[in-house]
């Protein structure tokens, strides 16, 4: 596959996948010249910005005693990170949504070797969706099926115009499908939200719901579909009963309906029970027609974290290896739990920016413990890290596997040669060094461990 080399002539690479959001659009056309991306066609502004970004870190930096940054070599930085993790009693490895499935697998091996806790971003976004799916199943489908068949599309607690800008035009609404040849003319777009979002403005119907009213509204829709509309009060969750009867009829009479659920459901009152109730509504609708539910996954490979974590440990996120076997209990073993309790004593951050997304008390704790950031870009988390190791950006300067929000694996292409090590390479070296110190692959408290050889 062609790839732009430093100083080389112009190269055009087609069918490139975008490593930004869960849409994983794989129709980008990227032009590279002189070792830099010069243009990106087909991407939205979010995706283009990542390809064209100039704010990359090029060599590792270490915070010194005066709180200033000093450059260090990759070998030194990797050894420093390995020692930091190997010496910790309660290490946390957090993030993983912005890296490849291959790197995630190595991260799980590190966590197992050091008896640490490994968590990914879904614990702060769609973890409740996964819990709902664990209880009620997943009536999912591919985005291709939605494109070709859906005549009713509902976004609930999600605003893709801002978060997934090409979702409607590529997969759900404005695109022509095999059985929806007239694009949006053949489809009805409904948005259910607590406020008038940009997506709501272009919807055929917008249903405004009261904050925290989702569970009651799903229950009301289920009751209507079961034929019990007459038992409902005049208004449910801030929505007039007649509007819900209209929505239930629209869904029941759809040829193929697609419900997309956002973090407006998972991070509001009811959380995973909202999603479980939404799945049960879809289950109810499937007695009459074909209906599906897909969580709107944010980071490009956050779905991949759930795939690899579940495949290798049995659990989708928040996996604690301190007992020697995987243990999972959201509310106890996620990053927010560990950091909020002040329990973690070292943290590796990769493919995420907790500085931007975790609660303040978590970041205050991160600032007090040894913290390693592995990321192509300087982020808010760099501000409290002890060391930042830059890496190749998956999907731009190295290959890797990502899982789209509908769980279709997409091979990410390399379009540029940056010369930076990949996440896989850095993590493999960290694992190798740690295994040298922990020959039995278990986390033995330092006080009990035999004299460990220094990392070489
Ligand atoms: S919608 Fe998402 S995956 Fe597609 S180009 Fe935009 S940021 Fe990239």
UniProtKB/TrEMBL annotation:
Domain of life of the source: Archaea
Name of protein: Formylmethanofuran dehydrogenase subunit B
CDD domains, A to Z: MopB_FmdB-FwdB
NCBIfam families named among the record's database cross-references: one_C_dehyd_B (TIGR03129)
Organism from which the protein derives: Methanoculleus submarinus
Molecular function as annotated in GO: formylmethanofuran dehydrogenase activity; NADH dehydrogenase activity
Chain ranges of the Molybdopterin oxidoreductase domain: 56-225
Keywords: Oxidoreductase
GO BP annotation list: methanogenesis; respiratory electron transport chain
EC numbers on record: 1.2.7.12
Keyword Oxidoreductase: yes
GO annotations of cellular component type: membrane
Enzyme class: oxidoreductase
């Amino acid at each position: 596959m062609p790839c732009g080399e430093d100083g080389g002539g112009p190269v055009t690479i087609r069918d490139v996948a975008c490593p930004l959001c869960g849409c994983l659009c794989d129709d980008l056309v990227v032009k590279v010249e002189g070792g830099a991306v010069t243009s990106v066609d087909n991407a939205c502004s979010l995706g283009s910005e990542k390809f064209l970004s100039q704010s990359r870190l090029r060599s590792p930096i270490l915070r010194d005693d005066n709180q200033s940054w000093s450059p260090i070599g990759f070998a030194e930085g990797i050894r420093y990170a390995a020692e930091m993790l190997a010496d910790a009693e309660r290490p946390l490895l957090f993030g993983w949504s912005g890296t490849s499935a291959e790197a995630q697998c190595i991260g799980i091996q590190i966590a197992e070797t050091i008896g640490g806790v490994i968590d990914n971003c879904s614990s702060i976004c769609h973890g409740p969706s996964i819990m709902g799916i664990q209880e009620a199943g997943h009536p999912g489908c591919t985005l291709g099926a939605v494109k070709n068949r859906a005549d009713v599309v509902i976004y609930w607690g999600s605003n893709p115009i801002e978060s997934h800008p090409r979702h409607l035009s590529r997969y759900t609404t404005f695109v022509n499908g095999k059985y929806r040849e007239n694009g949006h003319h053949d489809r009805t777009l409904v948005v259910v939200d607590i406020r008038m979002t940009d997506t709501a403005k272009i919807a055929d119907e917008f249903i405004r719901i009261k904050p925290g009213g989702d569970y009651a509204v799903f229950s009301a829709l289920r009751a209507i579909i079961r034929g019990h509309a007459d038992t409902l009060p005049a208004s449910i969750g801030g929505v007039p009963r007649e509007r819900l009867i209209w929505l239930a009829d629209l869904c029941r009479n759809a040829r193929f309906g697609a419900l997309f659920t956002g973090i407006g459901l998972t991070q509001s009152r009811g959380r995973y029970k909202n999603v479980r109730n939404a799945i049960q509504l879809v289950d109810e609708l499937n007695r009459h027609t074909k209906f599906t539910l897909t969580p709107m996954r944010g980071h490009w490979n956050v779905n991949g974290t759930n795939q690899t974590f579940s495949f290798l440990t049995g659990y989708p996120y928040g996996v604690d290896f301190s007992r020697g076997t995987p243990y999972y209990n959201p509310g106890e073993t996620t990053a927010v739990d560990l950091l909020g309790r002040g329990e973690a004593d070292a943290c590796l951050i990769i493919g995420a920016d907790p500085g931007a997304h975790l609660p303040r008390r978590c970041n205050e704790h991160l600032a007090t413990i040894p913290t390693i950031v592995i990321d192509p870009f300087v982020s808010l988390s760099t501000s409290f890290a002890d060391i930042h190791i830059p890496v190749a950006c998956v999907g731009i300067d190295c290959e890797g596997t990502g899982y789209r929000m509908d769980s279709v694996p997409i091979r990410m292409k390399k379009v540029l040669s940056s010369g930076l090590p990949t996440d896989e390479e850095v993590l493999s070296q960290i694992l190798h060094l740690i295994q040298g110190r922990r020959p039995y692959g278990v986390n033995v408290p330092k006080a009990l461990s035999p004299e460990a050889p220094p990392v070489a």
